Amino acid sequence: MNVGDRVRLLTGTEEGIITRVLDSELVEVAIDNDFTIPVLLRELVPVAAEEGQAFRRPAPEPTRPATGSKKNKPLGGQAKPPRPGVPAPTPAKAQSAGPSAAMPPRPAAPPTLPPAAKGLYLALVHQAPELLALHLVNNTESEVVYTYGEERQGKYRALAADKLKAKAASAPLAHLHLKDFEQWPAVVFQLLSFKLNSDAAYDLLTKRQSFKASTFYTSRRPAPVIGKEAYLFQLDERPAPALNPERLAQAEASLEAAAAGPAPALDAKQANVLQQALGGDKPAPVPAAIAPAPPKPAAAIVAPPHEFDLHIEALRTEGAEGLSNTAMLRLQLDAFEDALSRALATNMHEIIFIHGAGNGTLRKEIHRQLSRNKDIKFFEEAQKEKFGYGATLVRLK
Q1: Which residue of 45, 113, 225, 325 shows the fewest CB atoms closer than 10 Å?
Q2: CATH at 127
Q3: Mind spelling out the 3-state secondary structure of the chain?
Q4: pTM for the whole thing?
């Protein structure tokens, strides 16, 4: 059994969805959108999707949060059994309309969703209140070959590859738990559209999508193709340009020219001789040699502030938008090295680097570089009552 499977408890009639694996023998189950409980695997049995149709039971609606409480709502959505000696209540329509009216009513048709724009989408659909299934949605007229992977701490891992038909959605590519939102990886898609008998080819589109609370919870809207509410992110805001045969030929010629290497440059005399041999024109006058411009004086070195903030928001106005964890760490280390070199060049006695606590990666790298620098007297944690463990005081020689 895997995350997302619907299961039933062997010791009762409750049903739910596996939301996470706790260990090799224990899983967490969301009981019909009301609450989650840990259950041993040996106490669960999977529920087939055809079972609800065979027994005329309405399908579960994981995307609709429960409004009742655990006390006044029976587990699993089952009706409460009648007490001994008390006849079961019969609906008024069933009493007056005959036996056929006793059949359970058909579920109401879902509301008509507004037409969605064409494109490729990443859709996160609720399978339980705290569990989301990740799908790739192809709302175009072309088929798509795709790869899916995840990036954690700057390391990429490929997880799936397949072909998706037009106007179709993939099977769940991953399951993400809302409790772990801060630890969600960035997802990476590579998308190549194609259409049989088409007269154009398309460039490969690569999209990296990270998740932030400020934009994630405002992205919920009806998803195309799936027909459900989802957290929706369009992957092809800039569709891959079509490449006709002429452009493909030009691209191939450019690659061949680059492989052959640049042509040797001609000096002025050689150019004049070549022009005379080809066109018979008089040689153009050779321009006089231009004296090189004097070098510009070096800009004065500016001392860094006494408290130098290495948070990414202080280094970039747009913050970490569009940066991987590796690129963000490289930017912070470059700023640290530049500030340290300017502090040494301007004879500063000390400087405080505010790096934050976080997972400790930036702090460890800064301490490693400081320990190897012979121009450093010593370094230590800076004013714990002010910065906590998120800053380092550096004394310079």
Answers
A1: 45
A2: 2.60.40.1600
A3: CCCCCEEEECCCCCEEEEEEECCCCEEEEEECCCEEEEEEHHHEEECCCHHHHHCCCCCCCCCCCCCCCCCCCCHHHCCCCCCCCCCCCCCHHHHHHCHHHHCCCCCCCCCCCCCCCCEEEEEEEEEECCEEEEEEEEECCCEEEEEEEEEECCEEEEEEEEEECCCEECCCCEEEEHHHHHHCCEEEEEEEEECCCCCCEECCEEEEECCCHHHHCCCEEECCCCCCEEEEEECCCCCCCEECHHHHHHHHHHHHHHHHCCCCCCCHHHHHHHHHHHHCCCCCCCCCCCCCCCCCCCCCCCCCCCEEECCHHHHCCCCCCCCCHHHHHHHHHHHHHHHHHHHHHCCCCEEEEECCCCCCHHHHHHHHHHHCCCCEEEEEECCHHHHCCCEEEEEEC
A4: 0.43
